[in-house]
Amino acid sequence: MTLTEHVLLVDVGADHPLRSTKAMSVAWTVFWAYIGVAARVGLTEASTAIEATQAAPSILTAMGVSFFLPNVFGCFIMGLAQPLKTQRLEAFWTGLTTGFCGCCTTFASWELVLSQQYLGHMAVNATFMFFVQLTTSMAAFLGGRHLALLYNGTSAFEARRRDVQAHAAAMATLEDADGKWRALAQALEAVAPAAADACSEPVGAATPFGLAAAATAVSIALAAVYSGSYLAVAFGPPGALLRYGLGLLLNRSKTFPVGTFAANVLASVIDAVAVLAMPASASGAVWVEKALMTGFCGSLSTVSSWINEIHSMPTSSVGYIAGTHIATQTAVLLLLGT
């Protein structure tokens, strides 16, 4: 047992409500969402500070000061987390990837800037910007994943086994007339590490609920006193939880996760409506920009989960990439262009 597991495990009864993996996943997601939004805000401010030291706008400005570094960093952590996941700490890892990585990255802000560039007759720049952010995010994800695999040889074997098993299971639903894919998936499931099946104890128990409650109290107090970027942090968890719920309800397909697609498109549309309905007053604009756009929509949308799904697809991901981008741009351009 690792030190992290020892700290997070508690002894509760088999029928204790805190044993619910989903309930603990929600609590961990809320806790990590606050940290994820804070990381995005911090990286944005760091990018702005770096730009202020340059004689001319650098690549950070060209790629998007408010989202380029956060998206790259969040995808790196997402990749790092994948091979290190354990069933024993399933809720913790769900919270980390859905809460921190999902809220550190933002699809809506990225697509909004692309739409504004398309409308500003900068289509070439917008197209390059899309592909550079896509490839750098994927490279960061792969870099984090390979670093984790190098750290733990057992995780490397298990990650490969899970990847092949997931591919076989997906193919079994697509084309499996002779049952070979189903047989392969069952064989790989049978050789899963025995320790994973034996680890049935709850993870975290009261710990994530306490941390989530404390983080909520602190963030609300800071937002009430200081406003500004603290509003973004305070409104991050509602967006993350809506995305998590959409994923649970709609992500049935491995080749086109509708839940993530809906979250990214919805957040981008809300961002566009917010731009059109921006209040004239300074205080109202702060609430819309920070609480709604940066906090809620930035956390409702995600690049890290999107990249993880693209990497995990058993077949070509081109349709999912193009479908998400085209649907988002169509909706946002129709709104902003009218």
TrEMBL record:
InterPro entries according to UniProt: FluC
GO cellular component, one term: plasma membrane
TM spans (from-to): 26-43, 55-79, 91-110, 122-142, 211-236, 256-278
Membrane topology label: Multi-pass membrane protein
Function statement: Fluoride channel required for the rapid expulsion of cytoplasmic fluoride.
Main location: membrane
GO MF term set: fluoride transmembrane transporter activity
Transmembrane in keyword set: yes
Keywords: Cell membrane, Membrane, Transmembrane, Transmembrane helix
Protein family membership: Belongs to the fluoride channel Fluc/FEX (TC 1.A.43) family.
Keyword Protein transport: no
Record's protein name: Fluoride ion transporter CrcB
Reactions this protein catalyses: fluoride(in) = fluoride(out)
Compartments, record wording: Cell membrane
